[in-house]
Amino acid sequence: MQQPTAAALKQSSSPAASQGLAFLALAAGAVALGVSPVLVRLADVGPFASAFWRAFLALPVLFVWMRLEDRSDPRRRGFTPAVLAAGVFFAGDLFFWHLSILNTTIANSTFLATTAPIWVVLVAWVWLRERISPWTLLGLALCVAGGGALVGESVQIDRARLVGDLYGAATGVFFGLYFHAVRIGRATHAAGRLTFLSTAVTALCLFAVALVLEPRLLPQTVQGWLALAALGMVTHAAGQGLLSVALGTLPTVFSSLVIFMEAVVAALFAWAALGESLSVMQMSGGLAIMLGIWVARPR
Description:
Largest sheet: none
Radius of gyration: 19 Å
């Protein structure tokens, strides 16, 4: 029997290796995104101003990444519809996220924001006509249940907060659409170029919002500037950048489920940095999320 050559072995193993690296990038991105609630709380500006600075301060880092990437990647396209949509959708995600925080409980807004994978699945199934496997649906159910358990003890149903809850639901819709826009954009753009261009659109949109809705844009303390710098470089440049890298390889639906890790990381950081306690239900929710990601993994 003919033995496989070394080149053939390398070629056969490359898809699995590529998916493994993409998953690591996605997990690292989820960790970077999970730090954002703590950093927003430490920044001494309003929510819309912090959202603007998050995108704007990431631009220099993303520009350097894009220029380095351009040396080896010939895809140097500009603002395509997918790139523009990704920037607008993420601006909408941050806008409605902060509106929900101002108009309902943090627990409600957090739980409703975690419904983004549901919208990713619906768009993939209804609009893009993609087949959704039963394993993916089971993983989604586990992740949503786990996300609910993380904040379930604090979720409140109150008609007075209905508008804020609707803002939270809108957050999930916009983040779900952002996933699909980035996945489509990665077909024509390298990760660094797509992230830089879409972030420029996001920053422009949020700057207009902050000018209208915020009394001041500049932080007044060194801690505030450091928190905003970390938001830009860690949460956005690293978090969104790694997400763009992963979406060039991994399925959109599965990638949206891995972002549930953001909620787990946020709870752990709140426990470590802010002294917030973790209940048995919250820890069970975190385990359910990790189990759901494992169940829905690409096969």
